[in-house]
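Hi R.,

Here's the chain you asked about this morning:
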Amino acid sequence: MASKTATVAELVPAPAAIVNGRSCGFGGISPQTSALDWLREQGLTGAKEGCAEGECGACSVLVARPAGDHDEAGSQWTAINACLIPAASLDGQEVVTAEGLGTASQMHPVQYEMAMRGGSQCGYCTPGFVCSMAAEYYRPGRCGADTPVGDYVPGSSATLPVEGESAAADLDPNAPQHDSLDHDHGANGFDLHALSGNLCRCTGYRPIRDAAYALGIPSDDDAFADRRHRPAPDAVPTRLKAATGTYARAADLSDVFTLRSEHPEATLVAGSTDWGVEVNIRGVRAPFVIGIDRVPELRTFEIGDSSIELGAALTLSELESRLDGRIPLLAEVFPQFASRLIRNGATIGGNLGTGSPIGDTPPALLALEAVVVLASPAGDREVPLADYFTGYRATVKAADEIIRAVRVPLPLSTVTGFHKIAKRRFDDISSVAVGFALTIDDGVVTKARIGLGGVAATPIRARETEAALEGQPFTREVARTAAAIMRREGTPMDDHRASAAYRSTMLGTALLKLHAQHGHNTTTEEASA
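And here is the predicted structure, written out as tokens:
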């Protein structure tokens, strides 16, 4: 009798994606071929490789992804790093590159504003910026009722100035250039964090910001805006086999288990933000890769009376949108986790699955007393995250298990905070990360949970510090005493990111910062000082 894998493979059509409105096949590529390399082989050379790690955004392209709380809802244009994902993962999907947004004679509004306001100089990074900016341009809810339609309409007679002429004379003097509601948002609702994964070495960024803040609302005949009202393409079972290995997208969780039983050496890949770096930089090759990013059983999102369940294959951007601040501690984590481009691909299951001691979500999830739901052919089992990590990049997960979801118990603690110490404010790996969740009743800490990252071989709980806080008034004096204990938690080491001494100092400082932000009571001596 034929296996399920063989049966599925026989029914799967030749892999192909819709790119800029036309079907493009994947014939002749290997499972390791990135979407970027494949697109450039199609003659679409706007997207470029700058870092091969997802840190520069020169490779940014748009894909149509599900919008809203359910996959059957409408679509939204999502910017992703094409250098990281396998080309085969785009099978059956819709992709738009900078070339597909507009042409020299019929520019897209984003392209027009970038050109008119000097947002492009050498041009290497420009197509990536354009795609990331276009994703934000079409973001549902970006525009308010008073946001005007943009100055430029594709197909209009507006032209760029010739060399030697000034673009400024052609700009509407009433159009916003760098007006903003705050440091990170324009008056048109544009969120500059949408561009946090794009780097430019020429412009100093101000003209790029000016272009972003000058964008209005899409016109009524904008085909890309209209596309959002239809569902995103379904994920299709995919089989791409070459001499260097095989890529298989699983149809469902049962398919994952079947594939793993037949290929025990298989590597599971969701957003590929970690695996893509291994392939590009370290030249790692897996004989069999299973794509799990769209497996329905891994994309659950449920808010119950006793917990909130977060599907392992939901991207961090999707979780941020669906949670909408319901878990304040995670709401602090999301903006500090890499960049928007990375969060559009990275999953919470992947962040835990790597077992990295410097991941951003584990410290927060430890503070939240999260539970990892592991699935196998035998069923589900739940493991407290505090018991999940067993050593450096090692966990209790058995060979036949997969992370299905993460559950955060309710009710939540009343005082929470996430402190990440890194060399850059955004888009950087943490040297130290601390998640706090304190329950304070009448000024007294009745429960303390503190998760730490970057100070041991695994993410850990600061149990001695928790014990020092519980039962005590949350005063500066108590915070100082507990901070001294917290400096001794873990086994920090010296490396290229920070010294052990610095890491220990930052632990204590993080608790003092939390008290400064949320302290409720002071001692008599402090009150009279």
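One quick note: Residues 187 and 423 are 30 Å apart (CA to CA).

Cheers,
M.
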